[in-house]
Design a protein that fits this description.
The chain is an alpha+beta fold. Helix content is 30%, strand content 17%. Strands 1-2-4-3 form a four-stranded antiparallel sheet, with helices on both faces. α2 packs antiparallel against α4. The protein is globular, with a radius of gyration of 17 Å. The structure holds flavin mononucleotide. The site of flavin mononucleotide has 9 residues, from β3.
Length: 181
């Protein structure tokens, strides 16, 4: 059940060096290719990166928050031909979260590294760097890179009582102030 996976799911940024098996990679691959997309245009492409040097470079493609990619035995870059579909961001986001859930179902950990609208520490856009690292053709953009591997940290799932129940509305929007932190 998806909810059982979601109850356990957390972002994992520490990984064992142990590589993924061919069977695990096959399941992740099939999951990505089964992602629904608007009008079935499938604007996405997925680049599986295991080379440590390349993973290190991906981890530096934005100023903060992607360093964990160096330690993840697998980094999946979710990229799109942005001319293929006006809602490529939605299409790619769906594929990205589905592969995270498939990883969870295999007992693997994962984390999303946002790349769209982000910059390298040298001030150039993350996209410019990624274009070089991944040798992307013109017209392609990277939504995110998902780091995946065997977890080397353990986190408990969010407690049901901590969920933001006031975000759920019935029939119409009713603003409920969030409690002060
Ligand atoms: C669109 C999106 C972008 C994210 N970007 C990053 C990122 O660049 N680096 C990172 O370490 N985590 C990133 N995350 C993970 C979030 O920080 C994480 O999901 C959030 O803090 C909640 O923690 P949890 O996933 O453990 O419940 C991103 C998540 C989403 C959905």
């Amino acid at each position: 059940m998806v909810l059982d996976l979601l109850r356990k799911r957390r972002s994992i940024r520490e990984f064992k060096a142990q590589p993924l098996t061919a069977g695990e990679i096959d399941i992740l691959t099939e999951t990505l290719l089964r992602s629904p997309s608007s009008r079935g245009r499938n604007p996405w492409e997925f680049i599986f990166v295991t080379d440590p040097e390349l993973r290190g470079r991906l981890g530096q493609a934005k100023a903060h928050g992607a360093e964990f990619l160096r330690k993840a035995p697998l980094a999946v870059a979710v990229v799109a031909d942005t001319d293929k579909c006006d809602v490529w961001i939605e299409d790619c986001s769906i594929a990205a979260i589905l592969v995270q859930m498939a990883a969870e179902s295999l007992g693997l950990g994962s984390c999303w590294a946002q790349m769209r609208l982000r910059n390298h520490k040298d001030g150039r856009s993350s996209q410019e760097h990624l274009k070089e690292i991944l040798q992307l053709p013109e017209g392609y953009q990277v939504l995110a890179v998902i780091g995946i591997g065997h977890p080397a940290e353990s986190k408990t799932g969010h407690r049901r009582e901590d969920l933001l129940w006031n975000k759920i509305h019935r029939e119409r929007f009713v603003l409920v102030e969030e409690p002060a932190p």
